[in-house]
Design goal:
By secondary structure, the protein is an all-alpha fold. The chain has 18 helices and no strands. The mean pLDDT is 81.
């Protein structure tokens, strides 16, 4: 009976959390990532496969579900995610005796606190716990003055901290997990109660808005920053791509053929309408970049401690800074738009490299993930800002793919 109650409760908790664009999907994604790794580490490959397949599906969905959303999951989708989370968690803890059964609490975490809190408030007011209202945590954040994306981001952050804590304490005692989870819940509830009692709201006027933001507005109107930052991305990013393609000492022939096929696809795309061209380019780059970066890290031509390699690494923070400035000062409304989905990507890029797994640590996943994320992020901004794909981008990208393919036939 307790297991049945947990399944029904968590299934509906994710459904009730689906109040803002991208919220239920993002929270479920973070939980499924933790479940996938714990299942993989414990030898439960079937559970890990189901969890990772769901992660991939949610990533694709969130691309269109972040604010302002164009696709919505509805009750059926959110209840399916809740049911999947709780059943995978139960199967995980049953298959691995060394895992605490209460690791489910922090991993699923925040939606459970939200559901229990809002139902308790309804009962306290003499209402049915099943009557809908606007007292969920995401509603409270909105009433405090947070924008839609800011409220989602804060909940992502809180849920991430819970999932990380659950992962770190997965082998700890049940009492530690229970009391730490309850302490976290009490802090959240007490904070909302206190700010509601004193009438605090997030102020958007003050020294920051009147001084710093006003100066940023002037810079945006004069377009000084965008001219410098965009030119930096436009010229430096393709050069960085070519340098990365030249970094491997040697690659298998199959990857060389793969790279040449991608170069041919880019060449053929030049004869297609502009509306299709950017989509093809994004697909090709997103396929090529992980392969090129991976081979550059696992079999580099340059010694990782050489001065030339350090000079190469310095380009990455420079190009990322230019990309962020371009994103901040651009006037284009149809270009790349930052969203809470970017936080999920950055969270994964930071957490995965630091997982204490020998296979992950062997390939220097920290630097590998940083490079891939930098390329993805900067190319997304560059392609979003360009009205038309010019000769410089075309020549350098195809040159990078061809030069990478040549590494299969050159022996150093």
């Amino acid at each position: 009976p307790l297991t049945l109650l947990c399944i029904i409760g968590v299934t509906n908790a994710i459904n009730l959390a689906d109040g803002l664009d991208g919220l239920a999907g993002g929270v479920s994604l973070l939980s499924l990532l933790a479940i996938a790794y714990l299942a993989y580490a414990g030898g439960s490959s079937g559970l890990a496969l189901i969890a990772m397949a769901s992660v991939g599906a949610i990533f694709g969905f969130l691309r269109f579900n972040t604010h302002p959303a164009t696709i919505f999951m509805g009750d059926t989708g959110s209840q399916f995610l809740g049911f999947l989370l709780v059943t995978l968690s139960i199967a995980l803890t049953n298959n691995q005796a060394n895992l605490s059964p209460l690791v489910i609490l922090p991993i699923i975490g925040f939606p459970i606190i939200d559901t229990l809190t809002v139902m308790s408030e309804r009962l306290f007011r003499g209402n049915s716990p099943f009557v809908a209202d606007k007292n969920h945590f995401h509603h409270k954040f909105m009433r405090l003055g947070f924008f839609h994306t800011e409220a989602v981001f804060v909940i992502y952050l809180l849920h991430s901290s819970l999932v990380t804590w659950g992962f770190l304490c997965r082998f700890s005692s049940d009492w530690l997990l229970l009391f730490s989870y309850l302490a976290f819940a009490c802090c959240i509830i007490a904070t909302f109660w206190y700010v509601d009692r004193i009438g605090w709201t997030f102020k958007r006027t003050g020294p920051f808005d009147s001084n710093i933001k006003s100066n940023l507005k002037v810079l945006k109107e004069k377009q000084y920053a965008i001219k410098i930052s965009f030119k930096t991305i436009y010229y430096l990013l393709p050069v960085l791509f070519i340098l990365t393609a030249l970094l491997p000492r040697q690659i298998p022939t199959s990857y060389a053929i793969f790279s040449l096929v991608l170069a041919a696809i880019l060449l053929l795309s030049l004869f297609l309408p502009e509306k299709w061209r950017k989509t093809i380019w994004q697909s090709v780059l997103f396929l090529a970049i992980p392969v090129i970066v991976f081979h550059g890290e696992t079999s580099p031509f340059l010694a990782v401690h050489s001065n030339l390699y350090y000079c190469y690494i310095v380009f990455f923070p420079v190009i990322m800074t230019a990309a962020l400035l371009t994103l901040k000062f651009t006037r284009r409304t149809k270009g790349y738009q930052a969203s809470p989905l970017d936080f999920l990507i950055l969270f994964i890029a930071v957490i995965i490299p630091n997982i204490p797994d020998p296979e992950i640590q062997k390939f220097q996943m920290g630097l590998l993930a940083t490079k891939i994320i930098t390329f993805f992020f900067c190319y997304a901004i560059l392609l979003g800002e360009l009205r038309k794909l010019g000769g410089w981008i075309t020549i350098t990208t195809m040159a990078g793919l061809i030069l990478f393919a040549m590494q299969a036939f050159i022996i150093f």
